[in-house]
Structures are given as C-alpha cells and as structure tokens.
Specification:
The protein has helices at about 5-15, 30-40, 60, 65-70; strands at about 25, 30, 75, 85-90, 95-105, 105-110, 115-120, 130-135. By secondary structure, the protein is α+β, with helices and mostly antiparallel strands. The model has no long low-confidence stretch (mean pLDDT about 95).
Length: about 140
C-alpha cells in the first residue's frame, strides 16, 4: 500500500473516536491536531510529535499561528489542490487552527469539537466559506 492510501486507511480507522482536547488514543479521544500527529506517525511519515500543552481556546484570543508552527517542520504548503493524504488547515477564530486529512477533496476526515472524528465536506458547514491552506506531508 502506498503512503497516501495508508494515511487515508488509518484515518478512516479513527472515525467515531470521541473528541478530547489533546487526546491521542484511537477509540478513546483525540483532537484535530493529535489526529494528524497520530495518523502520520502510525503510517511512518513523521516521528512522534509532542506539541506540548495548548489551551483549547487559544485560537480565539491570539494571533500566533501555533497550529501552523507545529505543522511546518513536517509539511510543505501546497499551491494547488490537495491529494488524498494531504492536510487542509482551516481558519477558526483568529488563526489557522483546525486541521483535517483529505480523502478526496472536498471530502475529508477531521476531529471536531462535540462530534469526534467524523467525515466532513469543505463545501458544507462548519467548514464552508472558511479560509483554507493545504499542506503536503507525504513525499511522493
């Protein structure tokens, strides 16, 4: 299985996992940042990522792009449309602070507050109309 297919398959295994701030246990709890960290690590794409503590509402009160700062050592920003296994990062609050794994744009999987890990569509609420950036983590 190639890396992109492995990332999508692993991400699908997380569906139904409850949302839990800074959680990173499949089936027990995960947030959007830790979903990315766990999926890409389990697929051998990145090493273990420890982002340190971050408050659940930091994106509402600060302009610092903490999410992107933690992602950038492992990814490169993409100019064109994303491929399966790439990352979409949406602006929530004041910063780009919500990540999702692309399955087939605009379909994606993400860990969303109060919903857990679910299928999403970037053209539908709560993602529709939000500014989005794309990142490649997998070296093709």
């Amino acid at each position: 299985m190639d890396a992109r297919a492995a990332v999508v398959a692993e991400t699908e295994e997380w569906l139904g996992t409850p949302f839990h701030h800074q959680g990173r246990i499949k089936g027990a709890g995960v947030d959007c940042a830790m979903l990315l960290a766990e999926v890409y690590q389990r697929c051998g794409v990145v090493p273990y990522v420890d982002p340190g503590y971050y408050p659940p509402d930091w994106h509402l009160h600060r302009d610092a792009e903490r999410y992107l700062e933690k992602l950038m050592p492992y990814a490169r920003e993409l100019a064109g449309p994303p491929a399966p296994g790439d990352v979409a990062v949406f602006q929530f609050g004041r910063t780009f602070s919500h990540g999702a794994i692309v399955v087939a744009w605009p379909r994606l999987i993400h860990a969303y507050w109060r919903r857990g890990v679910v299928w999403g569509d970037a053209m539908l609420n709560p993602l529709a109309g939000r500014e989005v950036k794309f990142f490649g983590v997998i070296d093709d």
